[in-house]
Structure formats: C-alpha cells, structure tokens
Amino acid sequence: xxxxxxxxxxxxxxxxxxxxxxxxxxxxxxxxxxxxxxxxxxxxxxxxxxxxxxxxxxxxxxxxxxxxxxxxxxxxxxxxxxxxxxxxxxxxxxxxxxxxxxxxxxxxxxxxxxxxxxxxxxxxxxxxxxxxxxxxxxxxxxxxxxxxxxxxxxxxxxxxxxxxxxxxxxxxxxxxxxxxxxxxxxxxxxxxxxxxxxxxxxxxxxxxxxxxxxxxxxxxxxxxxxxxxxxxxxxxxxxxxxxxxxxxxxxxxxxxxxxxxxxxxxxxxxxxxxxxxxxxxxxxxxxxxxxxxxxxxxxxxxxxxxxxxxxxxxxxxxxxxxxxxxxxxxxxxxxxxxxxxxxxxxxxxxxxxxxxxxxxxxxxxxxxxxxxxxxxxxxxxxxxxxxxxxxxxxxxxxxxxxxxxxxxxxxxxxxxxxxxxxxxxxxxxxxxxxxxxxxxxxxxxxxxxxxxxxxxxxxxxxxxxxxxxxxxxxxxxxxxxxxxxxxxxxxxxxxxxxxxxxxxxxxxxxxxxxxxxxxxxxxxxxxxxxxxxxxxxxxxxxxxxxxxxxxxxxxxxxxxxxxxxxxxxxxxxxxxxxxxxxxxx
Length: 585
Hints:
This protein is mostly helical. The chain is about 50% helix and about 5% strand. It comes from Asanoa iriomotensis.
C-alpha cells in the first residue's frame, strides 16, 4: 500500500489525527540482473548461436578460406554466387532490369533460366566483385544449414516436443545425409524457411499437436510473419517452392474442414492477419511466376516430360543409400550407390538413426496414436511421391497425380520431395526422444546424446576446390564477349568473374541450354574461322577471351595458336589469356 493509504488506515483504525508526513515518491524498482540478461539467456538465443556454431563445424572447411574456395565443386556453386551478386547489383542500380541478366547474351529474361535464389538479394547488396561474391556465397551456405536446424527446432517445439526432442529434429532435418549429394545446389539446401514458416503459422494460429487449436493463444502477428517467411522461401526457387505452396494449400484446406466440423471461435484479427499474409504470399508467387512463364513460352522444352523424369527418379533403395561423402555411411553404401543411375539425385538417405528414432516413435511417443499413424502415413506417402516414375505402376497413380498440377512439369527431380520425408521423420523422432527424456535418469542421459549422434550422420568429406582467379582481360574486354572454354558445367566461373562490372556475355549456366548457345559452343570449337566469326558478329559479340590454362586439353585448345589472316579479327596476347577483338558486323 502507498504512503497515502497508510495514513488513511491509521485514521480509520485508531481515530488518531494524522501526523504530517512527507512521503517521498518511491524509486522505481531496479530491474533485476535476470531481466537485463534475459534475452541473452533465452532459449532461442542459445539455439540460434549454437546452430550457427554447429553449422560452421559440420561444413568445415567452408569458412577456412571463404574468399578463395567453394564447397562441392566449381560448377553450380559459382553460378549461384553470380546469382546473388546479380540480384543485388540489379536492385542497387536498376530494379526493372532484374530479369534481364548480363549472362546468356542476347537472350531476354535470362535470370529466370533456373532457380534464382532471389530471397538472398539483400546479401547481394553488400560488396562487389568475385571475392565478395565468393565470401557471400560461403556465408549463406553455412547459414542455410543453421536456419534448417533452427526452423525444424522451432516447429517441433511449437508442436509440443521438449528441447532435446526438438534438437534431434533440428539435427535430423539440417544434417540428413542426402543433403551431401545436394551440396552444390544451394536452393535445395535452403529449406529452413519451410520449417520456420510452418512453426510461425502454427504459433500464430494457437495450434500444436499436443493441445490442438487454442484460440486464446492465437497471435496474428506471428501468422503474418509465417506467411512472409513462406513467401521468402518461395522466392528462393520454384523447384522447392512449388511443392511447399501446395503443402500450405493442403494444410489450409484441412484447417478449414476442421473449423467447419467443430466451429471453434476464430478471432477476427487472425482472419485479417491471414488475409494480409496470404496476399503477400500470392503477390510474391505472381511476381516470380511471370518471367518463368515467359521463358516457358519462348523455350517450351523447359517443361519436363514424363519421360524426362525417368533419369532422376529414385528407386526405393535410394532412400537407404548414402552419398559418397558421408563419413559414416559413404563406403558402406558404395555397392548400392553404384547400382543407382543419377547418383546425386537418387542417394536420398535421411539417416539410419533418424529412421530408428522415428520407428521408436510409433510405439513410444508424446504424440497420440492417431497422430503417430498420420505422421507415418505422411512418411510413406512422401517417399512414394519422391520415387517419381519408379513408384508403383510406374508412378502414374502416385507422382502422376501431382505432376498434372501447375508448376510440377517444371521440376525435373521428384526425389527432392525427400525434404518432406525428412521433416516428418524428424517430428516422429522428436516425439520419441521427448518421451525418453522423461524416463529414468540413465535414459535421460542417453537421450541428451541423441542430437549429437544424429548430427554425426551428416559429418562429411565434401571437397572445397579453389576458384580460379579471373584473368585481367575479363575486366577490360569489350562487351558483349564470350569466354572460352564454354560449357554448361563450367560457365559459372566466367559468370562469377564478371561480377565486378557485369558486362554482357554469351556464357551462362542454367537449368537448360538455349539453341543459340548450343550453336555458338559448337561453332567456336573451330574459332577463329569464317563461320564462327560470322556467327559471333551476328550475335553482337565484340570480343572472345580464351583463358590459356582452362582450354588446355579441351576442344578449344586450338584457339591459342590460331591465326586471324583474312578475318575481321585482331588478336591480343596477354600472359593469362588470348583476346580476339571482333570488328562490328
């Protein structure tokens, strides 16, 4: 009670006259140290910092020489380093030119020739040139694993699992062995937004597996945030984003059906939040879809036929086969892996320990029996769908049912649906581990080791090759230019080299090769001759840069010693490259 209240009480109880008392205002209570340091001690702070540290360790030596090496190989990763650099450059200089990239000259809308990683564009705003592009890529590569861990951890915690169970789920989702075969595909590794968006949407709607829907726990702000994270995930690429979008649609239909069945109270603010968030998601989807539809009209063969899927559809044994870079399972899976076709897309082991914990979760779990059976059914369904044309009856009545949906005909790799298999296994496993963590002390101690054991399945021997430094001629060659050698698996390097000034260039690596690019590559094997020079001049090419060390042993090696007699071409020799200057057509 305050000072005035004390005086009034004295008068009423004793009848005594009040004594003049000078009551000084009480000083505000000091904030306890626990409050001041609460944020640093919060569960999510430690999980986030721990996830980053763990990612640095498991992906090592990515951050040992992040400005000189790149994880996996110098094919797709260098192209993806260029993608982030280009999107940042376009936003900084001319956002309207975003889809008109400097590569693939003279093709229009060339930035949409593959998944764009557009969601990483803010990182592309920082720094310029090849060194900055490499550093940026390596940092994002490490953070992609950390986000996958945090996203799955957050989702499983929201569903009702304990910390140890959530750590197992995070480790299983982020470090599943199949990811090692995708180390050169950053858009496939960047799946943390899927789990994080689902976690935020569940929290925003006051829903969990253990307690169901509780309207008093609805948080509209979290719901909007979940939709925004989902939109960001979609912006990283349609290969992963299209199935995610349909998964969200399915979840929304189930939620609506559940509401119609029971009619629980639904806060108006939550409905408005969902409307706003869904509008953001659909706007991003429309913005991303438009250039891809234009590309599909120009190059109809980018739509994958049913026959195209046979190359990368994994058989059932693929889900029990590890990539060769897994330290634990790589050698043991050598025989099974040799029998697979497209090994990078068909070695899809989520983890034997994760399988085991998920199986345990069927008999011992915090989830109800019905929930366990539904999760198990989801695991089976996701595997059958991911088998593509290798599914029952040739996949016609499994993957064939989703193949007819808009967007799926642009996906060449059904096996990447293993993302959903892994997430469902992780939820099942988390239920079992949370149940174990409540048992006797020896069992609890054993449960604490399980996250580390799950991470161990992702420990690897991934290579980190050095990226060649650009020859000085790249910085001065008149554009548009062509760098030789050129090829679908090597053009990422000259694309990366060009990130200092982004000149127009014929080189380009993407999900497909244009007819014009095929013709130029075939013709320039004989460069400089009359036909190849005429074709390049007609295409607007002003110079050809032949990298001396790169063409040795390739069909382009003869360009080093070729003469230009009688041709409208001038040759300039430098220590690192030979530059051919073409007169304008």
